[in-house]
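Reading group handout, session on sequence-to-structure problems. Before we discuss, look at one worked example. The prompt was deliberately terse, the way you'd type it at a terminal:

> structure UDP-N-acetyl-alpha-D-muramoyl-L-alanyl-L-glutamate epimerase

The input record follows.
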Amino acid sequence: MSTPAAADLTAASSGAPARGARFRYEGFEIVEAADTLVCRYSLDGRPFVERVAFPGATGWGRPEVAAAARLVYLLAAVSYYKTGAPPVVDLGETAVTDREREFLRTFYVEGLGEFAYRNGIDLRDLVIEGPRLDAPLRAAYSPAPGRPLVPFGGGIDSIVTVELLKPRFPAAALFVMNRPGDRFDAIERPAEVTGLPVLRAEREIDPDVLRSRELGFLNGHVPVTGVLSAVAVMCAVLDGRDAVVMSNEWSASVPTLEFDGRAVNHQWSKSAEFEQAFQDVLADALGPSFAYFSALRAYSELWIARRFAELTGYHSTFRSCNRAFAIDRSRRWETWCGECDKCCFIDLILAPFLPTAALEDVFGGREPLADESLAERFRTLVATSPDAKPWECVGDIGESRAALLLAAERPDRSTTPLLQALAAEVAVLPDRPDTATLLQPLGSGLAPATYAL
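And the output record:
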């Protein structure tokens, strides 16, 4: 686990910014004529409206759809709560069970852990007010089995999940969430390679949130995977599917850093803690016939990379560089940038399993390991630098070190100076990673028996 970088420590201790007083859930409605869920919230009386469209969806009047919509409404609020991060969340007229209240509070406090840390706010004072349900409002959802929906981001994790599921579940489909009228080439190209149909949701965030800096709102990372999970569940229910299968790996549960005696995890809504808690809430809402789980929970990034290396049909289409996903299209890269933390990690984790020439092709001649100016970025990944682990969806220190040492043993890497220099630094450390263990399952995962790999 990393310790905070000096700059972040300064930011986190320089005095908390002004917070709002009360965030309120104002209600949600399904507008069937527009295939849209509309969610309304407010911060100290300032309104926010979110719309999530499901183009071409049918069966809106079913009780299980309303149950799924309610969960989207509960979780999507986090994008608006963060604008003022008040100590009180008012559920308005929305009654929740004790389990839902506790889950929601944890979703805010832990899911916004990075946001709170970087803004110098302590969210542990959060109180959730509102009416109480004595028992869950369970919908009797009975979908046909064997029709999973796989949220797909075009990276190595979701590609491996798809290829694990396709042979056993030919009725599988992909799920993609994007803004209205906007699609990312980095997702669409590998999605086409899968050969599976794509179900879509179009999430339209209130435009004021996108003007946070201009309007003086607090800003920062939100647990977007949790929101996407709820939207994917609603999409699955609308299409009569029995499972949402995520691609969150074992190390997503490893905290990014520890501060003030608390673990802070950039990937919290990808963690096993979130997965288990959301499973429980979904069971109350939809019953036992619906499953939500990660197919990769028991596996390391190193295991996933080895599997992906065999899937050569995707090597020219996948792209995990964050600059491919810029909201502003004019700033969106059509290639790997070859220098960001994600590019460095993907190159590092694949280097043990792919030839140097193959990775040069992947990165269009800008392979990060060939660029000695990126040495400090790699040192943060393998923790030979005093800087903290980056606030990114990257593997943990052990996985990165194991990948580095394995790659350095390849004959075609003997003349990669940066790689060899970094490997020499890691090789003398006392806590050498157990590579053999990382290439085996690291647990049992949380999948139901029907979907167990």
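Points for discussion. First: The chain is about 35% helix and 15% strand. Second: The longest strand covers residues 22-31.
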